[in-house]
Amino acid sequence: MTQISLTFPDGNARDFDAGITAGEIAAGISNSLAKKAISATVNGAHWDLQWPITEDASIAIHTMKDDEQALELIRHDAAHIMARAVQEIWPDVKVTIGPVIQHGWYYDFDREEPFTPEDLAEIEAKMKEIINRRDPVTTEIWERDRAVEYYKANGEPYKVELIDAIPGDEPLRMYWHGHWQDLCRGPHLQHTGQVPGDAFKLMNVAGAYWRGDSDRAMLQRIYGVAFQSKDGLRKHLNMLEEAAKRDHRKLGREMDLFHMQEEAPGQVFWHPNGWTIYTGLQNYMRRRQHDYGYVEVNTPQVVDRKLWEASGHWDKYQENMFIVEVDEEHAREKSINALKPMNCPCHVQIYNQGLKSYRDLPLRMAEFGACNRYEPSGALHGLMRVRGFTQDDAHIFCTEDQIESETAQFLQMLSSIYKDLGFESFEIKFSTRPEVRAGSDEVWDKAEAALEAAIRSVTDDFELDPGEGAFYGPKLDFKLTDAIGREWQLGTFQADFVLPERLDATYIGEDGAKHRPVMLHRAILGSFERFLGILIENFAGKLPFWIAPRQVVVASIVSDADDYVHDVVAALKAAGVRAEADTRNEKINYKVREHSLGKVPAILAIGMKEVEDRTISMRRLGQKQSQVLSLDEVVRQLADEATPPDLK
RNA sequence: GCUGCUGUAGCUCAGAGGUAGAGCACUCCCUUGGUAAGGGAGAGGUCGAGAGUUCAAUUCUCUCCAGCAGCACCA
After folding, report:
1. What's residue A451's pLDDT?
2. What pLDDT is stored for residue A447 in this prediction?
3. Rounded-to-integer distance, Cα A16 and Cα A56, Å
4. In sequence order, what are the beta bridge partners of A364?
5. Does A255 have pLDDT greater than 80?
6. Dihedral angle of Cα A157, A162, A166, A170, to the nearest 10 degrees
7. What is the pLDDT at residue A395?
8. How, if at all, do strands A602-606 and A552-556 pair?
9. Structure-derived torsion over alpha carbons of residues A563, A568, A573, A577, reported in degrees to the nearest 10
10. Which nucleotide does the CA of A203 lie closest to, via C1'?
11. CB A258 within 8 A of CB A269
12. How far apart are CA A592 and CA A608, in angstroms?
């Protein structure tokens, strides 16, 4: 028998017979490890305890204490157990695929009737039953023909299709959870009882296309979440509850920020409170852009299709544009226009007015560009995905040599702005040339190298995403993590060599000849609508003072204090603070509760004591204690807080 | 766009083949109360829109619209 040498995490190496399994090794170490073991890592690969090891390798045996492996296995086995439960209850349901996802798993089924919430409860109960049976998990490698025969005989056409898609040289692995079989790469747990029966939950059912293709059958997908312990599940459910509390659609109503209605789906009616945030943010961005050497422009909403044809958008996005037909009295034919879905072609039109010299570059052209896109109805989602929105858009026209310095400047601007807006950290994704692309390899080499050198001059901390670039150039995407750990992709920075060509943008170089500028498409917030949605959810409505729509309410405790209340409001307003009086005939408890729920950052309570001393009792949002201060001190302090971060 | 679900007062929701209810919010009255709901009275609805079945439809059926959860899409 051939011997192999296995190296353990502590550095010790031991010889074993080739073909030994990690399960057997665990059993050789101790009885309890044999029971507790869930899987192994063999030469970096996640390894089933039953799989033979045939060559020298490093090995680590995992138990439930190893989060990464434990969660993957629990969720993966839960997916199989769920599919088995479904087929035990409804034997004619066809199974497809069931992968592990972020907090759990899903499994797609083909079944005539839809699954109901009651069905989910029944499936969950059946799953617990299966877990309690502690059925062993076993595995075998099958011949392709045998597997195809088997699934044909069992009426599982989706599995047959999956086998056909697996490359011919890859072995087909079968897994059994008890009597129930599934085609699966593995690894899996030792037996169904290793899945914690009290730490999973079936969440919801939704439609999903077979193989993610909208031209194919719609299957029913059941989502589940699973953890190592009941506590893990509880924490996850709490997080979901917290996210629901922060939902910007709910807070938007409660704080009277905006509404949407049937007559304008996907478009926002901004109320005074919401518009205060919106314009505050826009003014801030305008100042920052100005500081970074941008010029601001504005371009038309309704633009003839000819321009969209020239830019290439008509071909690709016609279905997603709002088309406006204009039938002029004496015109031979109707003119067909589109509401602009983006600003870049219009910016090139401004660039193209008059001859440009290399001395004019880089030209940083910004627009708070109001765009309209006819998004598919199912895509709409509050402020996060709308049909009418305004981008903080800009295009930098520059020479190829300037790409690097422009990128560096942009990165600096972006991180400074995110920081001002309360997001300390973000992730960068660097996407390189896709297979189908425009532009020569030479230009791509240059663009990618410039972009990469530029990020590296700021940070080495970015993720490479090969092949995911735009067809016209490499790009950087910027992802923020919010207060409850959700990720949002916001900013983007794209190098474009194609549009200047299509729309014939040129500049005269030092050599006196015409050259093509490069266009850098860039946005920091993306759209104001979406960014405000994210901002509201990140702060759970408790926005930083300077951007809060209602900053201060001055509330009287007794009506004899009303005059002083109005004095205080006037003093705050004069100092640039958004202050309002609340002299309603209500108790102070009532007013404090109402304005706290309204997320007003500062509530100033005024009773006779304050009137006599010319003081103020200030209560800050989220604090139980109030503080008595002089009027001057309060005005000074709040005026300072009301100053936007870039003006401090 | 696709699958499933939902649409009743400003908000959150209950209800039923015989024409509609609660709490909060709103209006008025009483109350001047010291940091998260003082008391009383009142007003408020073409039950998402259209068509059909029925003596009778807000309730059942169909179509449409919008929203929600996913999927697909996102220049």
Report:
1. 86
2. 82
3. 9
4. A396
5. yes
6. -80
7. 98
8. parallel
9. -140
10. B69
11. yes
12. 17
Contact A176, A189 (CB under 8 A): no
Name the closest nucleotide to A625, judged by C1' and CA.
Answer: B35
**Which residue intervals of A19-116 are DSSP H helices?**
22-29, 31-36, 67-89
Catalytic one among A393, A477, A482, A496?
A393
| Locus of tokens 């040129």 | A506
The one catalytic residue among A373, A515, A530, A578: A373
pLDDT for A375 equals 97
Kindly calculate the radius of gyration of chain A based on its CA atoms and give it in whole angstroms: 31
Q: Is A393 one of the annotated active-site residues of the chain?
A: yes
How far is A574 from A269, CA to CA, in rounded Å? 30
Nucleotide nearest the Cα atom of A382 (by C1'): B67
Q: Which nucleotides of B are covered by protein (CB under 7 A)?
A: 1-5, 7, 11-12, 30-38, 65-75
Beta sheet of A94-95, edge-to-edge order: A94-95, A104-110, A218-226, A200-209
Instruction: Reply yes or no on whether A391 is catalytic.
Output: yes
Separation in Å: B75 C1' and A448 CA: 21
Q: Tokens standing for A212?
A: 């993610």
Told to judge if A521 belongs to the known catalytic residues of this protein, a careful annotator would answer: yes
Closest CA to A175 of A202, A135, A211, A210: A135
Give pTM, 2 decimals: 0.93
The nucleotide closest to A113 (CA, C1' atoms): B4
Tell me, what's the ipTM?
A: 0.95
Which two tokens mark A79? 């997916």
Q: Which two tokens stand for residue A621?
A: 């949002």
A398 classed as catalytic: no
A616 touches strand B (CB under 7 A): no
d(CA A58, CA A11): 9
